[in-house]
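Narrative of activities, Objective 1.

The group set out to show that a structural description can be obtained from nothing but a protein's sequence at a throughput compatible with the screening campaign. Below is one input-output pair from the validation batch, recorded exactly as produced.
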Amino acid sequence: MTIATLIAAERLEESLAEAERRLARAGIGLRGIRALSGEAADLSTLAEAPHELRDALGAIEGADLIVQREGRRPPALFVADMDSTMIGQECIDELADMAGVGEKVADITERAMQGELDFEGALRARLALLEGLREDAIATCLAERIRPNPGAAELVAGLKAAGARCVLVSGGFTAFAQPIADLLGFDRVVANVLAVEGGRLTGDVVGDIVGRARKEAVLREEAGEALAHSVAIGDGANDLAMLEAAGLGIAYRAKPVVAAAADARLDHHPLGSLLYAFGLKG
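Output recorded for this entry:
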């Protein structure tokens, strides 16, 4: 049995009607609908697998659909990307803008997130452009430019209250990730460490780069035998492996290659609305 949490803040009634029509056309039995609030509802179905239900429902205008097997919520583990997922910015792009090389770095970032460039090579190329930038630019960037995405704090607080372990895994930098994790309440941070000498960035990182493989490894390490009860969320190609490995992989405002591969997508509503899908809201 599978369940679809339909989130449609502006048009729940119309979206539910459309979902029922699509299920009927696909020959999937509907066991019942449970309203969670004025903006979300659970559709319990007789679909045998999540992909069968996702294919039948497709994309409903203005609505988000989180499809999963019944009994898999709330998660035991939540692993999240940071840049453009838990926060609304790409930190390296903001630093580059402050250093006067914003356009060059932003172009590399976009191509890497689309999967057009190798992440590790793209990161080193961007960092090289920041060589010599004063270290104190990071604190200024954090204070003036970096903000959590809507609903980020609500999501983490709700998950932690339900006993979930929350881990922030970023291809960005600990200088940003640790303060963001502290602000939002994450239990652990894994990110790159910027190399600094004489109070200025060297244009490199300390140790190995946190990329696609490392993100997946952290997810598996944290989940252990409870991988099926894990949730991962991200937006770029660097997140694909962990999204595919998690029990539920969610693409947030994601690049097309990521949106196509993820189990679910959150395109329209704040991060906190995911609590509906975990049975923690409504």
